[in-house]
Specification:
This protein is α+β, with helices and mostly antiparallel strands and 280 residues long. The chain is built from five helices and 16 strands. Bound molecules: S-adenosylmethionine.
């Protein structure tokens, strides 16, 4: 019985390792077989496992309205899965020409050529500003180099990175299994002062401080100022609660569009009142 158990454990380990290796290596074909760890321009090739990439795409809520860009796309597996399993359009940017050609053949073989494009190019040169979702498996310093470009993307753009974070831009969510990955939503730039109309009869000024997606601030109504309760920024959606002069609380939710904000709150009579705001 004891020997049977040992054999069973060894055999299970062998099959687990074998299928892991298979999963890692099944990106090649008869024309080109990449080697895990082979040199790349700025980072070597190590593929994301199919299990983790599915979790990353699911976390980013990828759907048929999305345009996913995989930066450093290797054999194309993330772009292909985004199209095949999540219905998105996708673009892979890969510097290595042989790898890019292999990825294109993988795209054709997967039957998603109408929705997936592989660009043989450099992620630091190609324009990926139209992406609604960005995926990457690069290096910490490359993430930091890309960070300013990513933060200028449309607020609400979702970003997910295998293994590496974005320095002091804390992730909105961390994935721990089967490997480490991170998820962010690009925040709108809201820091500063806004004059708000339609909320209170007195002049209303919203003052916001911002560190990426983390915000705080005050609401000044006439001559009195109060801290915002539960302020949140999710992409271009800003929300908070405040107390009116009768100490009734109101939940406010606003869409940020550059220098304008627009939204609704529940008024004392429970109507949905429209609020607008402009940067001061
Ligand atoms: C760690 S692999 C990740 C592959 C794929 N994204 C995945 O997760 O399975 C990184 C890939 O980036 C490519 N690469 C390295 N530097 C690049 C650059 N500057 N522009 C485009 N691709 C690059 C490498 O050739 C490699 O295929």
């Amino acid at each position: 019985m004891k020997y049977f158990k040992v054999w069973f454990i060894l055999l299970s380990a062998f099959f687990a390792l074998n299928s892991f290796a298979q999963n890692i290596l099944d990106g090649g074909d008869d024309k080109y077989t990449p080697r895990v760890g082979q040199d790349g321009k700025d980072v070597i090739w190590v593929p994301t496992t199919n299990e983790l990439l599915a979790i990353m795409l699911k976390t980013a809520k990828v759907n048929s309205n999305d345009l996913v860009y995989d930066l450093g796309s290797g054999d194309g597996r993330i772009a292909i899965a985004a199209a095949k399993d999540f219905g998105a359009r996708a673009v892979g940017i890969e510097f290595n020409p042989e790898m890019a050609k292999l990825a294109q053949r993988n795209v054709d073989r997967s039957g998603v050529a109408d929705r997936v494009k592989i660009i043989n190019g450099d992620i630091f040169v190609e324009d990926f500003s139209k992406a609604t979702v960005v995926t990457m498996y690069l290096l910490p310093e490359l993430n930091l180099t890309l960070r300013p470009t990513i933060l200028k993307m449309k607020p609400g753009t979702r970003v997910t990175s295998h293994a590496f974070n974005m320095g002091d831009w804390d992730a909105d969510l961390e994935i721990d299994s089967p490997a480490k990955a991170f998820y962010w939503v690009v925040p709108a730039q809201v820091g500063g002062e806004w004059v708000i109309s339609g909320m209170e009869p007195d002049r209303t000024i919203l003052k916001l401080s911002q560190h990426y997606q983390k915000i705080g601030g005050t609401l000044q109504i006439g001559n009195t100022s109060q801290p915002l309760l539960n302020p949140k920024l999710d992409g271009a959606t800003l929300s908070f609660t405040y107390l009116d002069r009768d100490k009734s609380s109101h939940f406010v939710i606003l869409a940020v569009n550059n220098n304008e904000i627009k939204g609704v709150y529940k008024s004392r009579s429970y109507n949905n009142n429209v609020i607008t705001g402009k940067r001061l």
